[in-house]
Automatic annotation (TrEMBL):
Residues 20-442 form the DUF112 domain. InterPro entries: DUF112_TM. This is Tripartite Tricarboxylate transporter (TTT) family, large transmembrane protein. It comes from the Bacteria. It comes from Nitratireductor basaltis.
């Protein structure tokens, strides 16, 4: 079969000492970043993008490094959830409900081992889903013209906030802000400067990596300055006993892992849904199916396995629309999309035919990274737990230093550093106002492509706007976009994770 032949070629690309070493480093760093409360996968990947450029890595090794960080952060998010009742990131929120009670019962090591295995099961089978589903999606996407692509980008914007979005209006405003930033610079079709205010440094537009690092990494540093004491948990809070999961526990949770993997993968493939929804829906469904004795929420191992398998499966599912259509399925894949575009690689259907070594090498690296993460996370979890004892007052200066050195290394321009700081301040203010940052990033990333496809479609139709909804496929995508925008208003409150009262802020 073509798929297995392509995957074998991918393993030939991935199995070099350099790529294996980068996958190992990425998994290790990702797990540490995921374990630290507040950073999360999006910030982790954004912080390390400049590092990948500074190292001068080619496309495939750079992607292997950053996707390993992505998967590693998804694994690592569970550590502080289980030990401290503080989720490392939003998808790990549901793990606190049964993980922390297990810690209070003296079963912290067992909960960490079980969650590591559940994460492996979810991510491993989701990667197989990516192998089989993405090429099928590519066959459909090859039929797309400019009008269908414009509708597809509209779909991405309409579902930006995700089904569990709290405020669609803020998501729309954030997207408009991102589109405005994307318009800065000289219009390549007419040669007219737009929104440059006479500043020649802005004629080439604003590089999206500068915006991403500013919005995610620098704003995180500003948020830290508000709580400058930067204390760490006590060693007694993170003490572990047995770091293995008994066979009886694995047997009891095997059905939970299987069901949650399927649910999480489907949630990840949906545009805008992301790992948070995968985790929440997996936990909710499992509770309804398996919780006959009412033990969920009191330290039931199935309550740990379900969200962990679900959110890691969703992480794999979110790569399907990003690689096949060029439309990210989650915030972290939006950052990865920026990395691909910075490497002059255009995600979408042609990626599978024009640069198969990149895409299949990446998929093969995901399989390798998963096995590495299992080997790192189960026996070495005690090492990652020690990371929680490092005060943030030492971590945040390192984040700032990597960001400044990385961005200066990209262009050698002090103007870009000032723009990055401005984006950092903007990111800080937006986060304080509870405005999501991912729509801003998507607006910056997809704005130019959306405009380009609309212009092409209008050129073909001689200015007739009806071409934008002139084919059955375009109409179908428009219907999905409208449904995706309205759905959070109707069903969002049922699907939105509710923070448990016992979860620490």
């Amino acid at each position: 079969m073509d798929v297995f032949s392509s995957l074998a070629d991918g393993f030939a690309v991935a199995l070099t000492w350099q790529n294996l070493g980068l996958a190992l480093v990425g998994c290790f760093l990702g797990t540490i970043i995921g374990a630290l409360p507040g950073l999360g996968p999006s910030n982790g990947v954004a912080i390390l993008i400049p590092l990948a450029f500074t190292l001068g890595l080619p496309a495939t090794p750079a992607l292997i490094l950053l996707t390993s960080v992505y998967y590693g952060a998804m694994y690592g998010g569970r550590i502080s959830s289980i030990l401290l009742n503080i989720p490392g990131d939003e998808p790990a929120l549901m793990t606190t409900l049964d993980g922390y009670p297990m810690t209070k019962q003296g079963k912290a090591g067992e909960a960490l081992a079980l969650s590591g295995i559940a994460s492996f099961v979810g991510a491993f089978f989701a990667t197989w889903g990516l192998v089989f589903l993405a090429p099928q999606l590519v066959k459909v996407a090859l039929l797309f013209g400019p009008a269908e692509y414009f509708a597809l980008f509209t779909l991405a914007f309409a579902t930006l906030g995700g089904i569990a979005a709290r405020n669609q209006a803020k998501a729309v405003m954030a997207a408009a802000l991102g589109l405005g930033v994307a318009m800065i610079g000289v219009d390549h079709q007419t040669g007219v400067p737009r929104l440059t205010f006479g500043e020649i440094h802005l004629y080439e537009g604003i590089h999206f990596l500068i915006a991403i690092v500013g919005l995610f990494a620098i704003s995180e540093v500003f948020l830290f300055l508000e709580h400058a004491n930067g204390t760490a948990p006590k060693a007694s809070d993170t003490k572990l006993n047995r770091i293995t999961a008994p066979l009886s526990m694995l047997k009891k949770t095997s059905g939970t892992m299987a069901r949650s993997t399927v649910v999480g993968f489907i949630a990840g493939v949906l545009p805008g849904a992301g790992a948070s929804l995968g985790s929440f829906v997996s936990y909710t469904i499992e509770k309804r199916i398996a919780d006959k004795e009412g033990t969920f929420g009191t330290g039931d191992p199935r309550g740990v396995a379900a969200p962990e398998a679900g959110n890691n499966a969703a992480a794999g599912g979110a790569l399907v629309p990003m690689l096949a259509l060029g439309v990210p399925g989650s915030g972290t894949t939006a950052v990865l999309l920026a990395m691909l575009m910075a490497l002059n690689i255009t995600p979408g259907p042609l990626l599978f035919t024009q640069q198969p070594d990149v895409v299949w090498g990446l998929i093969a690296a995901l399989f390798i990274g998963n096995i590495m993460l299992l080997l790192l996370n189960v026996p070495m979890v005690g090492l990652f737990v020690r990371v929680l004892q490092v005060p943030t007052k030492y971590l945040m200066p390192a984040v700032a230093m990597i960001s400044f050195v990385g961005i200066y290394g990209l262009s050698g321009s002090t103007f870009d550093l000032m723009v990055m700081i401005i984006f950092g301040v903007a990111g800080y203010l937006l986060r304080k106002l509870d405005v999501p940052l991912v729509p801003v990033i998507l607006g910056i990333l997809l704005g130019n492509e959306m405009e380009k496809n609309m212009r092409r479609a209008l050129t073909i139709s001689d200015g007739d706007y009806s071409i934008l909804w002139g084919s059955p496929m375009a109409i179908g995508i428009w219907c999905l976009a409208i449904l995706g925008f309205i759905a959070p208003l109707l069903v969002g409150r049922f699907l939105r994770p509710k923070k448990d009262a016992t979860v620490a802020p």
